[in-house]
Amino acid sequence: MVERQFLPAHVGIIMDGNGRWAKRRGLPRKMGHKAGAEAFRTIARYANRRGLRFLTVYVFSTENWKRPEDEVHAILKLLRNYLDEVDQYRDENIRIRFLGDLSVFDPDIREKMEEIRVESAHNTGMTLNLAINYGGRDEIVHAARRLAKRVQAGELAPEEITEALVSENLYAGDEPDVDLIIRPSGEYRLSNFLIWQSAYAEYVFMDEVLWPDFTPDHLEEALTEYQKRNRRFGGI
Ligand code: IPE
Ligand code: IPE
Ligand code: MG
User: Fold this and answer.
1) pLDDT band at 87 (very low <50, low <70, confident <90, very high)
2) How far, in Å, is the centroid of ligand 3 from the Cα of 16?
3) Ligand 1 centroid vs 119 CA: distance in angstroms?
4) Ligand nearest to the CA of 17
């Protein structure tokens, strides 16, 4: 088992393969999302107990609206259920945040998210970022707009825009860059996840498992693999 001091500070997970998991069982895709939500609960709790500091999970992308309406609806319903039950996890000490353009959601969902964010803000355990209606490009556009407004207001000169300032203006601008990105299901791509923050991330693609079957042992396997990597950040 990887010792605590050698754990990546920030892990990102692209929770992929729900649809294929259901298809293999002759079930409707939404059953795959339901099973995926269960796997998520288990992994989030485990990661917190294991001592990870930041975990970002990709729940719904800015591109996922292209899916059939009933599938989108089923995913949003699972999200609602999760938001409703989060209170039960008070004892977990997890700090919960939402990354993405939340402006598109119904006011009741947004209020709930805000409530959870505020209530858990002082928790000292793992920070769990739920990327919802999240797109890495969209996030960078938002940051660019925020900086442009400050330039327009005369508060900032264009020359003062640095990489650090762009980072600070992302959705979770106070968090460290992602160290390790895990993607099950055999797809070897980022699909617009944390594209700015992953400039020097390590990647672990796991093609033998679909997200609903992902267990703490799979997470351990990825952490062990991460520990073997030699991160150079352009140095020697
Ligand atoms: C990931 O599983 C969940 C979301 C994108 C919301 P998929 O639904 O993409 O599963 P596959 O890739 O079709 O198997
Ligand atoms: C990425 O998975 C988004 C989430 C897991 C939420 P997709 O299944 O949407 O990605 P592509 O379409 O295969 O690239
Ligand atoms: Mg997919």
Assistant:
1) confident
2) 5
3) 30
4) 1
Would the pTM count as exceeding 0.85? yes
pLDDT of 149 reads 98
Residue 192 Cβ inside 6 Å of ligand 1? The answer reads no
Half-sphere exposure of 44 (CA within 13 A, CB side): 23
> Which amino acids are annotated catalytic?
16, 64
Ion ligand 3: residue ranges with CB closer than 5 A: 16
What structural domains and CATH numbers belong to the chain?
4-228 (3.40.1180.10)
pLDDT tens figures, 208-227: 999 999 999 999 999 999 99
What are residue 175's phi and psi, to 5 degrees? -100, 155
Pocket test for ligand 2, best of 187, 188, 195, 211 (most atoms within 8 A of CB): 187
Residue nearest to atom 12 of ligand 1 (CA): 17
